[in-house]
């Protein structure tokens, strides 16, 4: 049995056998078959092979197969299952941001304790009694609530020596204050702006080594 | 429900390509919508072809179980069937994978038990005895002497009428390689029959 030299035609013989050719292709192959003994022989061989393979197939119990099939289509996973981790992730991220911001604020405020920490307020309350008695009056005359930098400026502009202020700050504890001082402290606290800031105005303290006066400067 | 048609033309369940593929997609959609009869129809359309492919691939025992496993696995993962290939080609792919798994497991078992099984006497050969037609008996012998890959490709091309592209998808090779395997198989069959 010889092979036809027209490989394209030979390739289409199984398709002709299974009627998978379009009308045009089919007519071309049929026309070729009319003049090609080798392809006719091969097509005949294909028919025998096809019949043989079909006959050789063992019987299959279809009921046996169908009984094992799932009764309904498997359900797709609900979307909420996959969305839940996203929601959790978002909350974790938000919590982390809040924690970082809070920690940063606390750290910054702690570094500038002379401005807003309770100890500084204690120092403010104590300073007039230790140094200049007129200072509280001067502060009380201020029409507006001072900003933090203004507070620092006011305290230091009271004329009390820094050394005194700092020693007062170090020595003062809430338990050491008398009733008047505590009231003054509470008044200061009431006047504070409660909104925390993450970036307080920087303050530098210039110390005059010859005299005892100091003056703060905001940069 | 009856047994798969045997010895009837193309298997009695498939004549062409595109129209049948469309019908498969419709049946799949019906089954997904809860129509159990659609599953039966799909089994009826493809079980015989899967059994043929199993035999051509050298499976001689428990063909029913293999075909059943193929359908069960296919129906359990129908969501993964995108219709890039025909449903039948997809089934062949699954069946072939199962066959390879079985062979590996069987090889491990044989290695463990050190049993040399003589698989000469099988249902496949028993069927030979009832084949009256000498030509068909010779043809069976000719197909038998092909290499496993040649036999798979030859069966899918001749018995199922798959294109080279579909064969390549089913057996995990290229279209060109499938064509070469087919022509080598055809040449070997001719030479065997000419002896």
Q: Mind explaining what this structure looks like?
A:
The complex is a heterodimer of chains A (219) and B (195). Chain A is 63% helix and 5% strand. Chain A is mainly α and 219 residues long. Chain A folds into 2 domains: 7-66; 113-218, no CATH class. In chain A, strands 1-2 form a two-stranded antiparallel ribbon. In chain A, helix 1 runs parallel beside helix 3, helix 7 (118-130) packs across helix 10 (162-171) and helix 7 (118-130) packs across helix 11 (179-191). The longest helix of chain B has 27 residues, at 87-113. In chain B, helix 2 (36-56) packs across helix 4 (87-113) and helix 8 (164-171) packs across helix 9 (175-194). Chain B is globular and about 55 Å long. The termini of chain B are far apart. Chain B has 195 residues and is mainly alpha-helical. Mean pLDDT of chain B is 80; it is low at 1-16, 115-124 and 126-131. At the A-B interface, helix 1, helix 3 and helix 4 of A face helix 2, helix 3, helix 5, helix 6 and helix 7 of B.
What is the structure about, briefly put?
The complex is a heterodimer of chains A (219) and B (195). Chain A has 219 residues and is mainly alpha-helical. In chain A, 63% of the residues lie in helices and 5% in strands.
Which stretches of chain B of 5+ consecutive residues score pLDDT under 50? 1-16, 115-124, 126-131
Oligomeric description of these chains: heterodimer
Average pLDDT score of chain B: 80
The figure for the number of domains of chain A is: 2
The largest pleated sheet of chain A is described as:
2 strands, antiparallel
Strand content of chain B: under 5%
Q: Based on DSSP secondary structure assignment, what is the total number of beta strands of chain A?
A: 2
* Number of individual domains of chain B: 2
Rg of chain B computed from alpha carbons, rounded to a whole number of angstroms:
17 Å
Decide which structural class fits the backbone of chain A.
Answer: mainly alpha
The overall pLDDT average of chain A reads 69
Shape of chain A from CA axes?
Answer: rod-shaped
Q: Count the DSSP helices of chain A.
A: 11
Helix-strand sequence of chain A: HHHHHHHHHHHEE
Distance between the termini of chain A: 103 Å
Kindly report the name of the CATH homologous superfamily of the largest domain in chain B. RNA polymerase sigma factor, region 2, helix turn helix motif
What's the CATH first level of the largest domain in chain B? Mainly Alpha
Order of helices and strands of chain B: HHHHHHHHH
Q: Helical stretch count of chain B?
A: 9
Please compute the radius of gyration of chain A using only Cα atoms: 48 Å
Q: What best-fitting shape of chain B do the alpha-carbon axes yield?
A: globular
């Amino acid at each position: 049995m010889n092979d036809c030299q027209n490989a394209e035609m030979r390739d289409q013989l199984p398709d002709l056998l299974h009627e998978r050719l379009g009308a045009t292709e089919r007519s071309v192959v049929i026309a070729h078959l009319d003049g090609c003994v080798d392809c006719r022989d091969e097509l005949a061989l294909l028919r025998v092979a096809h019949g043989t393979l079909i006959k050789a197939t063992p019987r299959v119990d279809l009921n046996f197969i169908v009984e094992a099939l799932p009764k309904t289509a498997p359900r797709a996973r609900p979307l909420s299952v996959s969305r839940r981790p996203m929601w959790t992730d978002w909350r974790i991220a938000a919590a982390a941001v809040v924690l970082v911001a809070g920690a940063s604020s606390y750290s910054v405020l702690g570094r500038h304790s002379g401005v807003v920490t309770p100890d500084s307020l204690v120092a403010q309350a104590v300073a007039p009694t230790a140094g200049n008695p007129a200072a509280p009056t001067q502060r009380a005359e201020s029409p507006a609530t001072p900003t933090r930098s203004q507070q620092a400026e006011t305290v230091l502009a009271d004329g009390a020596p820094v050394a005194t202020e700092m020693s007062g700050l170090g020595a003062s504890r809430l338990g050491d204050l008398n009733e008047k001082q505590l009231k003054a402290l509470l008044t200061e606290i009431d006047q504070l702006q409660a909104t925390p800031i993450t970036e307080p105005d920087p303050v530098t303290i210039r110390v005059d080594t010859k005299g005892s006066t100091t003056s703060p400067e905001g940069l | 429900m009856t047994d798969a048609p045997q010895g009837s033309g193309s298997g009695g369940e498939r004549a062409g390509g595109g129209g049948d593929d469309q019908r498969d997609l419709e049946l799949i959609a019906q089954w997904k919508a809860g129509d159990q009869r659609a599953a039966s129809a799909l089994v009826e359309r493809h079980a015989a072809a899967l059994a043929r492919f199993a035999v051509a691939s050298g499976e001689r025992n428990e063909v029913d179980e293999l075909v059943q496993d193929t359908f069960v696995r296919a129906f359990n993962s129908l969501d993964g069937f995108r219709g890039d290939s025909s449903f039948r080609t997809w089934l062949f792919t699954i069946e072939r994978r199962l066959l390879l798994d079985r062979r590996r497991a069987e090889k491990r078992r044989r290695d463990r038990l050190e049993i040399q099984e003589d698989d000469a006497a099988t249902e496949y050969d028993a069927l030979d005895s009832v084949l009256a037609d000498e030509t068909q008996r010779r043809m069976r012998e000719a197909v038998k002497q092909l290499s496993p890959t040649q036999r798979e490709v030859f069966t899918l091309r001749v018995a199922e009428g798959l294109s080279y592209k579909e064969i390549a998808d089913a057996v995990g090779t290229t279209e060109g390689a499938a064509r070469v395997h087919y022509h080598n198989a055809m040449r070997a069959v001719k030479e065997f029959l000419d002896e």
